[in-house]
Amino acid sequence: MNKKRSECPLSCSLDIFGDKWSLLIIRDLMFENKCTYNDFLKSQEGIATNILASRLKELEENGVIEKSAHPDSKAKNLYRLTSKGIDLLPILIEVYIWSDKYFTIPADVKEVIQEAKKDKEKFENQIRSKLTTLLEMQKASQI
Amino acid sequence: MNKKRSECPLSCSLDIFGDKWSLLIIRDLMFENKCTYNDFLKSQEGIATNILASRLKELEENGVIEKSAHPDSKAKNLYRLTSKGIDLLPILIEVYIWSDKYFTIPADVKEVIQEAKKDKEKFENQIRSKLTTLLEMQKASQI
DNA sequence: AATATTCACTTGCATTTTGAAAGTTGTTTG
DNA sequence: CAAACAACTTTCAAAATGCAAGTGAATATT
User: Fold this and answer.
1) B15: Cβ under 7 Å from strand C?
2) Å from B108 (CA) to C6 (C1')?
3) HEC states along B79-136?
4) Is residue B3 part of a domain?
5) A60 lies in which domain range?
6) A19: nearest CA partner in chain B
């Protein structure tokens, strides 16, 4: 697979999500309630189908997301963040906070960031518990 | 230059530092007291000279770093984080904390991460004040 | 003063990764 | 059964990357 460039944990992390697309998929899973191939495809940034497929594969191989059968259709798969993926939340929150300081941000997003800034821990726990619930529901339905 | 893929602040952020190298340069400036072209070149990961040159240029264009004359040698340049660059610190800290949970980490790095985890704010302020001092020293010497 | 070395790039070129469009396979819907 | 949808895969052009070599200015050495 991808060989490590160094033992530096930052470098190892970037080997997993250091590109223009992976964290956008994570974002969709975390905040946008997206969970299928097509959901991700429809995102504003316009990811190409091959890139999406390869990123989903890599993220799964790295244990950040998990694929399972979709309950509604045998054609679909359901993608979910694993706990390793959910743990990326604090990183994303800090990126949003940084963005808020240096970019002009759409009003609706701005609101959410304000909330996150006001009480970081509370915000994190809200999202985290939503995601954990989803993950557990999926686990349970697999039996 | 690079046109935005969307108005999403995460996407805009990744347009700036969403690659395998930029954050490693930021790391070197933040934690390794590196500040010249050659310092960055010598890092473990082995960045190519053309990539380093192009990343330094992009980071400068995006206001994340600043270039100035080196006091010791007219041949050298001195690269420093701007306040916009220094503000990336919380993001890097969260990446390190995530890494600590999911990777095997060299003992010396591990120690520093422990310290950051124990009192995130204190750790952040320490680094931040070191970097701000450096930046101000540089500003002063330019007069 | 001549030569060598350092520094920050730049150029050229081969390799790798990327991305858009079209094609494939299986599933479901009408 | 035909059409539409889901998740890919293939193809191929373009962009990014990586290595080697070269450039020109500034220091250091002889």
Assistant:
1) no
2) 32
3) EEECHHHHCCHHHHHHHHHHHHHHCCCCHHHHHHHHHHHHCHHHHHHHHHHHHHHHHH
4) no
5) 9-141
6) B19
